[in-house]
Amino acid sequence: MTQTDWVSQNFLAFERGLNGSAHAPLHQLRKDAFQRFAALGFPSASAEEWRKTDLSAIRGGKFEWGLANTTSEVAESDLRKIMPGPFSAHVLVFFNGRFVPALSTSGKLPAGVKLSPLADYVRGTGTDSELSNLVRQRLGSLATFTDQAFVALNTAFLNDGVVLSVARGVELQESIQIAWISDGSQTANYSTGRCLIALEEGASARVIETWSEAASDRQIFCNHVTEVFVADGAMLDHVKVLPDSAQALHVGRLVARVGSKSNLHTGVFSFGGAMVRNEICPELAGANSNCVMHGLTVVGGSQHVDNFTVLDHAQPNCESRELYKGVYGDKASGVFSGTIIVRPGAQKTNALQTNQSVLLSPTASIDTQPQLKIWADDVKCTHGATVGQLDEQALFYVRSRGVPFADARDMLVHAFASDIVNSVSTPALRDYLENQLMKKLGSFGIHEER
Amino acid sequence: MLSIRNLRAGIEGREILKGLDLDIRPGEVHAIMGANGSGKSTLANVLSGRDGYEVTSGNVTFNGKDLLELDPEERAGEGLFMAFQYPVELPGVLGSYFLRTAFNSIRRYRGESEMAVRDFAAYMKDKAKLLELSEDLLSRPVNEGFSGGEKKRNEIFQMAVLNPKLAILDETDSGLDIDALQVVANGVNKLRSKDNAVVVITHYQRLLNYIVPDFVHVLLDGKIVKSGGKELALELENRGYAWVREGTAQR
Predict the structure, then answer these.
(1) What pairing do the DSSP bridges indicate for beta strands A380-388 and A263-270?
(2) What whole-number distance in Å separates Cα of residue A136 and Cα of residue A150?
(3) Radius of gyration of chain A (CA)
(4) CA-CA-CA-CA torsion for A7, A10, A11, A14, nearest 10 degrees?
(5) Cβ neighbour number for residue B249 with a 10 Å cutoff
(6) Residue of B93, B166, B168 to mutate, interface with A, max A Cβ within 10 Å
(7) What is the mean pLDDT of residues B73-81?
(8) Are B105 and A402 inside 8 Å of each other by CB?
(9) Which of A214, A364, B158, B216 could bond to A328 as cystine, CB 3.0-4.6 Å?
(10) Beta-carbon contacts of residue A115 (< 8 Å; ≥ 6 apart)
C-alpha cells in the first residue's frame, strides 16, 4: 500500500467512467497531472513549505471522488440554505464538485461577460468558441503542477468548475458567487473544483467563492485551484470564504497573473476546518500595478488554518499591501507564511506585509514566517508580525465601564478584525462575515481568560 | 456610600497605601490631594479593580457591598465610575457603540431592560448638549488619535452617560489647558446632585477652583494625614506639601 492508493483507485475509476470523452484534448493534461502526482506524492511532513501543517488525514484517508449521487440524503432544497449567501443574483452552485443547474441562478450579465460551468469545455463539447479557446489555451498554463502536488491532484481530476471571461473595458459591478458544497453524510468525500478567470484590458469583476458542507458525519476534502488572468488596466476582486467546520480538509490555491496598471484584491476568510491551507500566489507581471491581499482567520477547537502566500513583484513601480489577521482560541493553530519576491527589474517596488495574531488561550498557537527575496536595489519592502494576547489595558478599560469580560473580549477582537471585514466590497457578504465573526466569538469559552 | 477602613495595599510586594481611612456620603465632593508618590494613583487603581495591586489588609465597602470582592464590571454595575488619568485608545471600537454596550451592560447587571438603539442615541445627544460637547467624538473610535484634552472630555462624557453614584476623577486635570479644564469642570458640576458623590484626585489646587469640594484630604506616604474644607486646598497651594510633611513629623 502506498499513500497515494486512494488517489490511484479514484483516478482509474474516473478514467473508466469517461465513456468516450477520454479522447478530449484535456484528458492528456489529466493523465500528465496524474503521473506527476504519482511521482510527487503528497508533501511529506518534512517538506519545508508544509512543516507546520499535518496532512496525515489526507494521506491516510480513504476518500471517494465525484460522488455520483448528487443529492444523497440531503434534499436539494436544503442546499441553498446550507451555503453562505446568496450574495448576488449570479450564483453557481456545485455539489460534490459538480454543477447543479437547479440550484444556480443567473442574473442578467452585461454584454461581453461570459460565465459558464467548466464541464462542457473540459469535455470539448462547449458551444462558445471564445470560451473553448480560453480553456484550451490558458487552463493549466498558470497553475502548473511540476512541483505542486495538490495542483497535480486537482488537474488529474479536472472535471467541472467555472470559466469567466470579461471582455475589454467591460465593468461587471455585481459580484459572481461560486458556491462549493460537499456532502459529508455517507463516505469520506474528495471533491475538486477549478476556476478560470480571464479579464481583458480594462475589464473588472468581483468573484466570491464559498465552501460549505451538507452533513458533517464523514470527512470532506476539497482540493481547489483558481487560475486568474488580469490583463492591463483590469481589476479583479476575489474573496474566498470558509465557514466554521470541525472536520473539513481544504487545500486551495489561487494563482494570478496581473498585467500593468491593474488591480488585484484578494480576501481569504477562514472560520474553521480541521486542516485548511489557503494559497494565494499573484505575480505582478506588468508595471504600475497594485495588489492588496487580505486575510482573516478566526478559529477555535482543534481547527488549523495555514495561510500561504507568494507575491511576486516581477515588474517595476508596483505596490502591494498584504494584511493577514488571525484570532486563535482553544487548541487552534495557525500558520502564516508569506513570501515577497522582488525580481531584478522590479525597481521602485513598494511592498508592505503585515501579520497580526491574537491568541485567546495558552494552548492556541500561530507560526509566522515572513520571507523577503529581494533582487532589486531601489525598493521599499517591509514586513511586520505581531503575536499577542488581547491588550490587558484595553480589556480593563472596557470592563471598568461595566462590560462583562466575555463581551469586552468580543468587542476588542471584533474591533481587531473589523478592518479586514470592512475591506469586502459586497455589502451582503460583509454582513455575513460580520455575523460569522460574532457567532464564532460567541463560541469561545469564557475560560480562555488566561 | 463609600467607606474605606485601614486600607493597606501595594504592588509587587511594595506597600504603598499604609492604613487609609475615608468616608464619602451621597451629595459630597471630596478632593484627595497629594504629592507624587503619596499613593494617589494606587488608591485609584485599587478602587477601580485593576490587576496587579495587592490589598494586604483593611476593607472597602460601597453601598453596603465589599468592593474589593467585585470584578471591575461589577463595580461599574454598582455605580462606580473612574475617570482615568490615561484613558486607553480602542481602535476599531466606535464611541457610540462602546457607550451603548456599557450602558446596557450596567442595566443588565441591575436587572433592568436594555435601552433601544434609537432611544439611546437621543439620550446621548441630550448628554452631549448638556456638557456642550461635540458629538463627533462618538462617531470616532474610542480615544483613538484624541488629543489629551479630548480624551479627558470623553471620560467626562462617559461619566455623564453612565450616570454613576460615585465618580472618581483620577488626575483629570493633568495635561489640560484652562479651556479644557473648564469644560471638564462644568461637566462635573452639572452632574452633581444630592444622590451622587465625586472624588477628585489631584496634585494641584487648580481644578478645585472650578469643582469646589466639600472636603479636602491630604494624602502623605499612603495615609490621609490632614482633612479640612476647601480652604485647605488653598493653604496647600500656598505653603506646599512640605508644610504638611513637617506638621506630621511634629505630631
Answers:
(1) unpaired
(2) 21
(3) 21
(4) -160
(5) 7
(6) B93
(7) 97
(8) yes
(9) A364
(10) A90, A92, A106, A109, A162, A163, A164, A165, A176
Q: What is the pLDDT of residues B205-229, one digit of tens each?
A: 888 888 999 999 999 999 998 898 9
Q: How confident is the model at residue A304 (pLDDT cuts 50, 70, 90)?
A: very high
Q: What is the pLDDT of residues B26-51, one digit of tens each?
A: 999 999 998 888 899 899 999 999 99
Q: How far is B72 from chain A (nearest CA, A)?
A: 5
Quick one: residue A41, left, alpha or beta (phi over 0 = left, psi -120 to 50 = alpha)?
Answer: left
Task: Specify the fold of B2-250.
Answer: Rossmann fold (3.40.50)
Q: How far apart are CA A55 and CA A40, in angstroms?
A: 14
Report yes or no on A443 lying in a domain. Answer: no
Mean pLDDT of B170-183: 84
* A278 is a domain residue: no
Three cell numbers at B184?
471638564
Distance between CA atoms of B64 and A442, rounded to whole angstroms?
34
Domain layout of chain B by residue ranges: 2-250
User: Which of B81, B105, B151, B168 has the most A C-beta neighbours within 10 Å, making it the best mutation to test the interface with A?
Assistant: B105
**A393 contact B CB<8A:** yes
B216, three cell numbers? 479636602
Of A400, A407, A415, which has the smallest distance from its Cβ to B90's Cβ?
Answer: A415
Closest chain B CA to residue A397: B88
* Domain annotation covers residue A414: no
Shortest Cα distance, chain A CAs vs residue B90, angstroms: 7
Taking only the tens place, the pLDDT of each residue in A137-184 is 999 999 999 999 999 999 999 999 999 999 999 999 999 999 999 988
Q: How many domains does chain A have?
A: 1
Cβ–Cβ contact B206 with A under 8 A: no
Chain A to chain B Cβ contacts (< 8 Å):
73
**Count, residues in chain B:** 251
Per-residue pLDDT at A449 = 46
* Band of residue A1 on the pLDDT scale cut at 50, 70, 90: very low
Question: Does pLDDT of A409 surpass 80?
Answer: yes
CB atoms within 10 A of CB B239: 12
Sequence-ordered list of residues with C-beta below 8 angstroms from that of A286, at least 6 positions apart, any chain: A232, A258, A259, A260, A261, A262, A315
> Does A353 reside within a domain?
no
Indicate the residue of A400, A402, A411 with minimum beta-carbon distance to B109.
Answer: A402
Q: Which amino acid is at A95?
A: F
Which residue's C-alpha cell is 499577542?
Answer: A388
- Of A254, A241, A112, A111, nearest to A180 (Cα)? A241
At residue B122, what are phi and psi to the nearest 5 degrees?
Answer: -65, -40
Q: Give residue A189's domain range.
A: 1-44+56-243
The ipTM assigned to this model is: 0.95
Does the distance separating the beta carbons of A400 and B48 come in below 8 Å? yes
Take residue B192 and report the three cell numbers written for it.
452633581
